Amino acid sequence: MAVSLGQGPDDETDEMSEINVTPFIDVMLVLLIVFMIAAPLSTVDVPVNLPGSTAPAQDRPDEPLWLSLGADRVLSLGNMPVPEGGLAAALDRMTGGDRTATVFLRADRDIPYGELMQVLDGLRAAGYLKVALVGLEGAAGAPAGAAP
Predict the structure, then answer these.
(1) How many Å apart are CA 35 and CA 137, to the nearest integer?
(2) Which long-range contacts (CB under 8 A, 24 or more apart) does 2-5 make?
(3) How far apart are CA 44 and CA 27, in angstroms?
(4) What digits encode the pLDDT tens for the residues 107-137?
(5) What domains does the chain contain, in order, with CATH numbers?
(6) Cα(131)–Cα(121) distance, rounded to whole angstroms?
(7) Which DSSP state fits 138?
(8) C-alpha distances in angstroms, 39 versus 20, 58, 69, 99?
């Protein structure tokens, strides 16, 4: 019974200099699948025909609080419709009572100005004073001859 422990001239002890990238590829594929599933879930699905704006784009938080007023005059917080007169309760439920949270207001371009003002009055009455109006980036939909 012979055991060779030495490194003689006949032994091949070449070091392997290749990196095994298979685990790295596996992790990347799993992350790709996770992001492909999570990305559509983080958007708002209430269809709103937004007017255009020439104002520069502002940074938005990671999880914005979307309040949408669609062309059908239905008010939605996120994807959930808000019952008539239940705006304050719905906002308190979504923010945990944090009235310093910024509400991103989206309104269809065909909504009359008076109805938009009623929503803004409802926000003010509920104590939510930080309101950001959302529009499309660029001059598309901006009135002709509008100043930049």
Answers:
(1) 25
(2) none
(3) 29
(4) 888 888 888 899 999 999 999 888 888 877 7
(5) 64-137 (3.30.420.270)
(6) 11
(7) B
(8) 30, 21, 23, 28
